[in-house]
Amino acid sequence: MESNQTKPGLLCNPEASQRTLYPYVTSVVALKYKDGILMAADMGGSYGSTLRYKSVERMKPIGKHSLLGASGEISDFQELLRYLDELILYDNMWDDGNSLGPKEVHNYLTRVMYNRRNKFNPLWNSLILGGVKKGQKYLGMASMIGVNFEDNHVATGFGNHLARPILRDEWHENLTFEEGVKLLEKCMRVLLYRDRSAVNKLQISKITEEGVTISQPYSLKTFWGFSAFENPTLGAEGSW
After folding, report:
1. Using CA atoms, how far apart are residues 74 and 80, in angstroms rounded to an integer?
2. Contact 190, 238 (CB under 8 A)
3. Which domain holds residue 138?
4. Is the CB of residue 180 less than 8 Å from the CB of residue 208?
5. Does the active-site annotation cover 20?
6. Which of 20, 110, 156, 176 is the catalytic position?
7. How confident is the model over 103-132, as pLDDT tens digits?
8. What CATH number is associated with residue 56?
9. How many structural domains compose the chain?
């Protein structure tokens, strides 16, 4: 008798809809700077272990005051954006002159992620939510199981291991826009060298009191011309 094998955690129903349980996760990195929030993400989208798409935008403005970046499953990110569109529309319908700030949107996302986790049907994303409202900068993250925190700089995926140490050493609260962009590019270059899921095509976005600006895609300068008889990581950024 043939066994009906399915992925762990799924019912043995061949007609049930199935989603990947092991998506390839790329990184988003964000930090506070003097005037607001800066966020960077590459544009890779994986199909299994294949880097199939290289023009996937993973940072989106949310309402008037917030910017969302996501790594993980693209389809789940699209589902989250649909939830947020409904949330912003419902908030605007009140027409009371008030609008949701980044803290409220972040709290909403943590509840959504935790709720889906409790239903054993999580949205397979790690999220970064940044924004500025009434002069107050806000930056937080939420994991796929609802774990969340606020900080002066945050990252998802391998960025937690490779970019955060750099940010701890070099970040300060009076970063200019140019210094912040340079620091994010350094982090993204380290991720490109070290993370096989990263691609050399990225965007950097900023959000201030004036609103959200997302850059055109561009590539970083890299160097791969190492001698076969040398240590290719010697002196490179992110080396041990």
Report:
1. 10
2. yes
3. 28-214
4. no
5. yes
6. 20
7. 999 999 999 999 999 999 999 999 999 999
8. 3.60.20.10
9. 1
